[in-house]
Hints:
Strand 5 (142-143) and strand 6 form a beta hairpin. Helix 2 crosses helix 3 (37-53). The protein contains 7 helices and 6 strands. The chain is globular and about 40 Å long. The protein has helices at 8-15, 25-32, 37-53, 60-72, 78-88, 98-111, 115-126, and strands at residues 21-23, 56-59, 93-94, 131-133, 142-143, 146-149.
Amino acid sequence: MQDVHPKAGNLVARRRNVEVDFLDSNILVYASDARDKAKQQKCVEIVAAALRNGTATISTQVLFEYANVALTKLNLRPAVVRQQIQIISSLPTIVQSAMLAARAIEIRDIYGIAFWDSAIVAAAEEARCDRILSEDFSGGQPYCGILVHNPL
């Protein structure tokens, strides 16, 4: 994965006055999961638009979570998962850090959510995203000024 300035893609989108989304790992998982065709199609559209338009950000946590589920639960071949990671990581990617871990702890305490969910919020906050696209959070709930949207 190449080093990407965490806000690089967001600045381009912001100049065009476009909302910037943070993609949670479940969006990537559903895009590869053929068991639910409707969710798969919707998530493929979301990921394709993000890659095409530069309107989304991810984090290294999302890449790791996706790779784990793709390899274990979806039983995808390692070569396929590596190729998908390479493509997905062309999006601006927030690299987890000690600072983000400390912020995730603060967010966990403020909102009473799971630590790994708070790490997603911390990364989205770092990237100055407008929304988090996820099925795991309470849809419509704002965290640190970032609205959670369940596109499914």
